[in-house]
């Protein structure tokens, strides 16, 4: 089901960046207008179980962070519920369309854009690993349209090539690796430096997915700085719940500065619900709503 487009900045995180707060990331892509699988979101099963790899550690009182495979799977499903109206994030490798946000094509599991450089980086990585691939011929066009919303040299042939490439495990691996390099790993690193457990790490990741880490007032870096004006991080000796409450307040304030972000349910009826329950380790079962749709992860 279509949702308002999410505006993004056009900056990318350098691979050697040491802190998310000062990094330049591609601002995030909008909610998909339709599922890559062609499914009707209203007809989708929205309650899932996930094989537990970190459950025993939690049962023993040890904390697991978002890099735990089970927690990372949960994070991907949570983001996909907001970005794709689907818990099936793996169905999005083949997703591609222009969602009229002035960033050209939006595609793949994290919304790589032809106009912001991260799609170009992805196809370059894929081509380094597998020079003979169906997308390599479009690299010159991707370089020319970078920074614009143009489809020149791309078009329907490129869309078909993207969907074909998505059947290749090497292209799927490249999408995973770029997601981690640009978004997931820096977000988790910064959150751990701030002393946050899995819920806080996810809050950082989701914020970077939507806002990027540019210099504007709605960027992740600005959100974090505004939160730190209201509460100290756990690493600074502050209370984790109080800090996350301040971070989510700053996040919703940033979202409301743009019409495209004005629906704050991915915070209000998802992350805030987990925080109010004291679920700082993001342990299932989880129940939440995004844009009025209900979701759950049982285990």
Give structural notes:
With 299 residues, the protein is mainly alpha-helical. Helix content is 43%, strand content 7%. It contains ten helices and six strands. The protein has helices at 55-59, 69-83, 118-129, 139-145, 155-165, 169-193, 198-211, 220-230, 240-255, 265-276; strands at 47-48, 96-98, 105-107, 112-113, 286-290, 293-297. The strands form two sheets. Strands 1-6-5 form a three-stranded mixed β-sheet. Strands 2-3-4 form a three-stranded antiparallel β-sheet, covered by helices on one side. Strand 3 and strand 4 (112-113) form a beta hairpin. The longest helix has 25 residues, at 169-193. The protein starts with 46 loop residues before the first strand and ends with a strand. The model is unreliable at 1-45 and 50-61 (pLDDT under 50).
Summarize the structure.
It is built from ten helices and six strands. It is mainly alpha-helical and 299 residues long.
Number of helices: 10
Low-confidence stretches: 1-45, 50-61
Helix content: 40-55%
Order of helices and strands: EHHEEEHHHHHHHHEE
Shape: globular
Record the SSE blueprint.
Blueprint: E1 47-48, H1 55-59, H2 69-83, E2 96-98, E3 105-107, E4 112-113, H3 118-129, H4 139-145, H5 155-165, H6 169-193, H7 198-211, H8 220-230, H9 240-255, H10 265-276, E5 286-290, E6 293-297
Parallel strand pairs: 1-6
Antiparallel strand pairs: 2-3, 3-4, 5-6
Helix pairs in contact: 3-6, 6-7, 8-9, 9-10
